[in-house]
Each structure stands twice: as C-alpha cells, then as structure tokens.
Amino acid sequence: MKNRRNIAAAALAACLTASALAGCGGRKADEPVIRIGVIEPLTGANGAAGFQEMLGIRYANQVYPTVTIGGETYTVKLVEADNKSDCAEAVNAAGALAGEQVSVALGSYGSDLSMAAGAVFAENGIPAIGCSCTNPQVTEGNDSYFRVCFSDPLQGTAMANYAYQNNAKSAAVITQLGDDYSSGLGGYFKEAFSSLGGQIVYDQQFQAGQTDFRSILTNLQAQNPDIIFAPSSLTAAPLIIRQARELGITAVIAGGDAWENSAVISEAGAAAEGVVLTAAFDESEPANDEAAAFIKGFREYLRAEKQDESIPAVSALGYDAYLAAIKAIEAADSTDPAAICQALSSVVVEGATGTITFNETGDANKNLAFIKVIRDGRFQFLTTSTISR
C-alpha cells in the first residue's frame, strides 16, 4: 500500500497541474472495477459533519485508487449516496447502493442513520464499515457491520473519568429525546460518573428541533453543577453553549465527539471558549507513519479543495474505514461481499487513528479517547483517557 501512496501522490500532482482536469482519473475501457459504496448525510442537520467524513474517504481513494485481486489491478470506484440526515432516506440510500452492486459500504455519520441502513446491508449480504457511528447498537446483532471508531461506552466513560479527576463532583446531563447517539452517550456518562462517586444533580431531555433551551438551563442553574454534559447534534450544540453563557452559567460544558466541528466554534462564538469534548484523533499526535503521511497529505488536499485545513476526527476515521475496506478486499482476494466480510474479521490496519483490528462484534479494539478543549477559537489537545476493557 505504501508504493501505491507514492503512485497516487504523483498522479494527483499531475492531475492538479494538467490543463484538462476532466480527463484526470480516467481508466481504460477494459480495466476491471470494484465498487465501494459510501453512505453519508451530505445534506440536512448532519450535512456538515457527513461532508467532512466524506472528504476523508475521497482523499483515501486518491491515495489508494487501486487494489490487486487475483494478480490483477482493479480501479476502486466510490459510489456515493446522500442519506439526507434522515433514517427513511438512509434505507433508500442503502438500497440504491445494493442496486449498484457495491462490494462493501462505508458510513454513515450518525448512529441512527447507520442502524437504519444496516438492516438493508445485512439483507443484501454487503459488509459495511462505520467511520464514526459510535452507538453499540450499530454492530450488535449485525454480523455485516464493522466500525473503526471507538464506541459510546468508551467515550462516555472517558469524559466521566476526566470530569471526576478534574474535581467535578456534580453533573447535569442534557440529551435529545429520540436521538440514539445523544441519549446513549448521556446514559454511559451518567453510569460511569455515578460509579466514581459523582452525583447527577439534573437530567433532562429536549425535543428534536428545539432551539430555546433557556427553561432547561434555568432549572439546571439552580442545581449549580460542576459540569454540564450535553452530547447533541451540531444544530443544538452551539445554542446550548451560547444560551448557557448568556444566563451566566459558568460550569464546564462538555460534549461528545460530534462536537469536533468548526460549526460549534463559529456559531457559538466566544461562548465556546473552554468547552471540552471527546475525540478519536489528534493531528498533533500522529500514531504511526501512516498517520503522519495522512496529516501532511490531507492538509494539502483540503487546501486544494478550499476547505478549513484543520483535520477533524471524522475525516481521519473516514480515511481509516476506506483503508480497512482495501485491506479486506486484498485479504479476500475477491470482489465477493461475503468473502470481504469474512476477511474483515482478521485484518490489521495501520491507519491514521492507529492500529485497527476488530473484535467478535465488529467493533474496533480501542481503549483510548482524546480529550480536547476549545481554546483561542480552535480545538486543542488537553489529555488522553484510557479505559480498561
């Protein structure tokens, strides 16, 4: 794979300097192709984060554009489907990918979207690799679904440990009703924080689409918690943060990995200063040579795409999910989805987020989460939290 990286880099450079970009990436008519499906929310409430995840996958495809099967070189074609941040649309998108005869699928950002699509992938015998979908239910009971990210029990426990170790003895929890990511992560935080001896002094859910949190925050303020854990969507997060500070609430505000998005900072403004969150990747601490190469190359890619050059964890995870797919295809030496699914169980991937192997439920064997803080208008590394498995 390292040799393909050099080949891909040279090809990309030639492509960017060529006068006719439309011809770049073309293939011979008789060159065999293997299709990798990508299901992401490119529009709707999760569109910003889904796009960041997609960028990581697209970049990986430029770095590793081919795979060898049976001694023959296959071009990897990405078949993208927008699930529009909607579970019903996720079912439709997964069905469309099945119709395109993809050999493996990547995604989706949003655990609920992944779960909705997962049933379709399982019915069609298509292995799927989640990038950042952290809810345990994504892989539970679905032998076709794997994921390269940590799960909510780990990151919820990591944040609880961080809070308690930094003198937070009381916590308030705010989660979104009907959101599996939000309610699940909140539950794991509460369980871990209470087991450490901390006290949950306020626990409240809000409705999807809610924009005014002042009533909830006023009631919370009366309990004077040391920390507010409010894992939520990118739509709700800046509103909760800003309205809390407007009410004079000074408690530490914390969220999950979904908050690592520039929209939180840009929309919450100065109120975002000091917010802490869990993350699966930190660009200042490359885990291996692959990670170092990814960081350098992806920044150049983002610059060419006129995107913010900071690297969110979802992009690194998208990159790693693609690498896992390529590794499994090579191990299976086949385009057959069933063979690829079987191969995924035993692959070892050196990715941007570290070494990845999968356990019996398809989850990545990970026990570490980064804790980041928003400081001076950007996400900065604070510490790490390692969880015993």
Automatic annotation (TrEMBL):
Pfam family, one: Peripla_BP_6
Domain spans labelled Leucine-binding protein: 34-377
Residues of the signal peptide: 1-22
UniProt keyword list: Signal
Top-level taxon of the source organism: Bacteria
UniProt keyword annotation of Oxidoreductase present: no
InterPro entries hit by this protein: BCAA_transport, Leu-bd, Peripla_BP_I
Assigned protein family: Belongs to the leucine-binding protein family.
Designated name of the protein: Amino acid/amide ABC transporter substrate-binding protein, HAAT family
Record organism: Enterocloster lavalensis
